[in-house]
Amino acid sequence: MAEAADKQPKGIDPHNVPHRALIMASLMLAVIMQVLDTTIANVALPDMRADLGASRDTINWVLTSYIVAAAIVTPLSGWLANRFGRREIFMVAVIGFVVFSMLCGIAWSLDVMVIFRLMQGVFGAAIVPLAQNFMLDINPREKHGQAMAMFGAGIMLGPIIGPTLGGYLTEVINWRWVFYINVPLGMIAIAGSAFFLPETPKKKIGFDFFGFAALAVAIGSLQMMLDRGSDLDWFASREIWIEAALAISGFWVFLVWILSAKKPFLEPKMFLDRNLSMGLLFIFVIGIILLASLALLPPMLSNIFDYPTLTTGLVMSPRGVGAMIMMLLIGRLVKVIDLRILVVVGLSFTAYSLHIMSTFSPQMGPKWIIISGVIQGFGLGSVFVPISTLAFATLAPEYRGDGTALFSLLRNIGSSIGISIVTALLTHNIAVNHSEIVSAINPQNLSSVMNGASGMSREAALTVLNNLATQQAAMISYVDDFKFMMWVTLAAIPLVFFLRKPDYQNSGGGQKQQGAPVTE
């Protein structure tokens, strides 16, 4: 037994990690590769549908299969890392993700593509939480802010550059390169992980199948409901009612189970850590704001402003530049400024950017789209790094694996809920606004249009007025969505008072040593 114990890898000493920079670079390549896939395939769907012979409804399963699979498997990453070793599981995840990315690129039918995308989601689910776990473990607590700045850059940039890169690859080369792009990034990440990632201890721990099954049913049903709700007219569909009932029942059973089981799938004690609980709530809100606004802008710029795909990507890209600049700055400020102040500043920037977006009109140029994007990048960059740091600042290392898994899961669920809410509001408001605008059309309006264009028939004039009404109704509805997200952002600010300041900041930012290596 003693001999077996000696063979176990020692814990990671964050003050003595060889090749730390190379480890972080390898981790970030894997993260960027995985996060890109949450949005990069969206713009390729029309071309994909034509090649695979799919209908407008069935092609969405290419996105749904990936999202649902990743959501179900994400909470499992902490247990897998503890049981089989974090380094081993991370490498398996990256290798599997690259292999199935390549297979997605050569898919010859919709059924095959959906299977490959599902498996891509299964393997990709563990990449982000395990990478975050490694980033926290290989850096001392007083450097967690800088580590999370680098981690956040990958998380934030992926969804922002994904549509632009996807549109470029689809238009210039082929939609299959949306998946092939993962191969070179993944190969470098695999090589770096194989050479430099430290090993972590393994634990012979049991698996709470019932707890995981309840959570999997809940998360899978919720993601299916959110992803398919807009296509099925929400609760007018029996399927949505069934998925909602399964989600509520699954979460209820899971909650009762973890509070009563001797060795539950997730240890409820970790939620007593106030910073983790509030951090999960904050990252949920960030998920709503980040991807919901990104989901609204491309169709708005395309349908109302008549921007082509590449122009839309270029106009939106400064948002990523703003996030990068702020994250680099925040990585240095976290040592000297209370992290909670940075969160308030970031949320204020974000709310102000959404206020600017609520003043958009079809007659304006790209100037304010770019300015609001840069300001929103500043805001989201200012929030993500402090929240990623604060959430784990007081959490015991043995809970870090499950904590990072939940952190990633809540961000993704927040994104799905945010997109579903703003899309549903948009659809409803367009119908209401269009009806109100059309009701104002009278013979005088019609005569003005007909007189303005000689020879125009009554039917043609009605068509012109209807198109204008549709455009105005859509613009008003987009503005209403931006206002809604602004109020959600402002409502999150008071939650900052529930966060605790890290110990190393309480001591004036000094280099407080972590006495023991991280062993989990």
Descriptive notes:
72% of the residues lie in helices and 0% in strands. The protein is globular. The protein has 520 residues and is mainly alpha-helical. Helix 6 packs antiparallel against helix 11.
Question: What topology does this entry show?
Answer:
Blueprint: H1 2-7, H2 20-36, H3 45-52, H4 61-73, H5 77-84, H6 86-105, H7 110-124, H8 127-137, H9 144-172, H10 177-180, H11 182-196, H12 209-228, H13 238-260, H14 274-303, H15 309-316, H16 318-333, H17 339-357, H18 367-390, H19 400-439, H20 443-452, H21 458-492, H22 503-506
Summary?
With about 525 residues, the chain is an all-alpha fold. It contains 22 helices and no strands. Helix content is about 70%, strand content about 0%.
Features:
520 residues, mainly alpha, 0% strand, globular, disordered N terminus
Question: What is the SS-derived class?
Answer: mainly alpha
How helix-rich are the residues, as a percent range? over 70%
Per the principal axes of the C-alpha atoms, what is the gross shape?
A: globular
Which band does the percent of strand residues land in? under 5%
- Spans where pLDDT lies below 50 across 5 or more residues: 1-8, 508-517
How many whole angstroms does the radius of gyration measure?
24 Å
In total, the number of strands is 0
Order of helices and strands: HHHHHHHHHHHHHHHHHHHHHH
Q: In DSSP terms, counting alpha (H) and pi (I) runs of 4 or more, how many helices?
A: 22
Largest sheet: none
| End-to-end distance | 20 Å
Mean pLDDT: 80
